[in-house]
């Protein structure tokens, strides 16, 4: 193997010191003086129609600039999902609609000189609602007497299996082989139904956007977003203005976790500025962030697994139902992803199926959240597999080793797709060793009366969206011999800017400190769909590699010309070009200087684009050791081991933190995080008081180990890592709890009361 | 109303509304390192020192701070950078949005606790939430920092 200088190094993030020490680099820090403060009046009802709305009093208040209602906005429906066009999400939104479909839905937009005035004006708005019976339970949504979207102008770009009158957003079905016939041949069949809850992204920087008109009358939008180019396109549609009139700039982002793959606030400020010509800003507070944006889709997943006596899984059958909430963004795709990822993993099958629906309800919409459906599916599939292992009296690690897809094999549901890389088998073996499986499995009673149990799960994700998302990159050689790397992706804190510079530095045989990384500004950045679907390292990464190769070839060609030899006759070591006989040399610095002066020269720019026909899965084997208090049902995760195959580990330090952070988020989902609604559809968990994310005291020890593979289609062998890390804890912890106290909790989160009640019965 | 404080070691006169919280006053006066992550005193992002004690600036009325010493990360830049470097070498600042508040708490802890145990450290820092890192990397950085080791 070739040794690499930049790729594989655990170097600190380029922007680390600025963000850590509080420099003004985030959206709200960039707001200019005299910017209007925008507030949104949210619906108090889960489902209602606005009969009358009186804003006269509010408008008279001094300092109020504008108040907008459904009558003042374009009547063209759009989706807020940040997806490549044509989006698979339905166009079921207006900036403001006459019908409000969940508690928190937008009713009016208020813009004033300051926050106090805006809030005062908000109180003066009088709204008469006709209240409808809401659809709150997603299991009764299909065929419910209330129809969440009755409007005639709802639109889907292509057939996603929507049945509006039945509250069905999307229908999904993948089926290979004959399920029932193959099940009959199985010696063992297990079946279970699982519920995964809505989870909040909980990023620390809430949603915010600020905008103004520039000297050309164009709308400049500064937003904490993962998807600057999709924001531009969606705003253009929502506001009915040309895309060329909009410029989106993404500064530093205070976390996203998929939440910022959905537009949450941009159109509110944009329409204010477009109408008033004045700068406007909107910062959602934590309550609004919890209750008026999006959460993970809650799902019900019924799994049937069939196996032969030797433990070979012959049938995987999953029927799902997904709670889309009031609008359909990301519904068909998260649901599809759940199926796709569940059906990749075990390929010794003779039949496999995933089918079901995503439905409308009158709750906050489901959206993107790290894991994007795969998290939900992993919990259901892996829990059922653990059950199957028990029924067969097989060790859970062994049944997996027997059934997992291996490198070089094809997917069962897509026989033409070959798995290019995997070390999942080694991940399982390594994890087993690290957690002390053979000594501790399944349980140990402690003297304290508590019990320790061990459990496990494995998982996959993808790297980018095959055949859809294409990213571009551009590298400029600057006059002093440094480089500017231009990308359109978003570093949400993961370190992707640094990682992309590591790729470029590797190709150009230099170091990361020679790079200025600029991302992202839709006026100047090359196109990128944005940072989601675990695509940045893999898809944008390949674009960067290509751009760097392109530039390197140009540097050599230009150098050869200046040295009056053929390009094949020179060697470039990143700093100096030498003819093979070392007679003539030219430094990069000299070259860079000289090409910017005089006739016949040109600035050297390398470009590259990449869209992948495959989405190579990273893998994790997760092992949980929990301690359960039999008296109370309380669970502590004392130890978690995650062994990861993300291909080449580009930056071990940053990758490790990604894994730790994801595991902790997964522990939260497994044990207590829960987006809960009251009987009338009002969100109860609307602050960090009620919505518990893990704190420092909730975390035991977590071991993260890498088992690198080499992904042939990835940049320097890399695959993704951002999402896969959240998927194993719910299933592994549920399994460990079962092994400790013998109860199976199938509804997340696995709270002490659920365990306690189950132990009693 | 007008209050006089010692802001990052300098005399400063602030004009504040009676119902204004310190976090908002500070941001208004350009101390933009102050971040807010909640509105319920849960997250610790807004931590500053008042008379050297780490305090949640989102829930302290500015009007009550007449004569007090207020310190933000801008006022302890060198020390903060020293720790930030350790944090960065662990990769343990991700989005960085929680970092200023976290760093202010770490620096205060270093002043306040002598040879703290692991449990004492966790207890002291527990009010500082972070959604990105999973805390372990932050803890590695804190341990390195308290041992006086620098990258
Ligand atoms: S903003 Fe969360 S504690 Fe102050
Ligand atoms: S680094 Fe993002 S919240 Fe802590």
Describe the model:
The complex is a heterodimer of chains A (761) and B (151). Chain A is α+β, with helices and mostly antiparallel strands and 761 residues long. Chain A is 26% helix and 24% strand. In chain A, the strands form 6 sheets. Chain A has a 7-stranded mixed sheet, sandwiched between helices. Chain A has a 5-stranded mixed sheet with strand order 7-15-14-13-8. In chain A, strand 26, helix 16 (652-671) and strand 27 (701-706) form a beta-alpha-beta unit. In chain A, helix 5 (228-239) crosses helix 6 (266-276) and helix 9 runs parallel beside helix 17. The radius of gyration of chain A is 27 Å and the shape is globular. In chain A, 61% of the residues are buried. Helices cover 35% and strands 15% of the residues of chain B. Chain B has helices spanning 22-28, 77-89, 99-112, 118-125, 136-146; strands at 2-7, 10-15, 47-50, 53-56, 69-71. Chain B has a 5-stranded mixed sheet, with helices on one face. Chain B starts with a strand and ends in a 5-residue tail after the last helix. The model of chain B has no long low-confidence stretch (mean pLDDT 96). Classes of the chains: A alpha+beta (761), B alpha+beta (151). One FE2/S2 (inorganic) cluster (FES) binds next to loops of chain B.
Task: Write a compact overview of the structure shown.
The complex is a heterodimer of chains A (761) and B (151). Chain A is α+β, with helices and mostly antiparallel strands and 761 residues long. The longest helix of chain A has 28 residues, at 536-563.
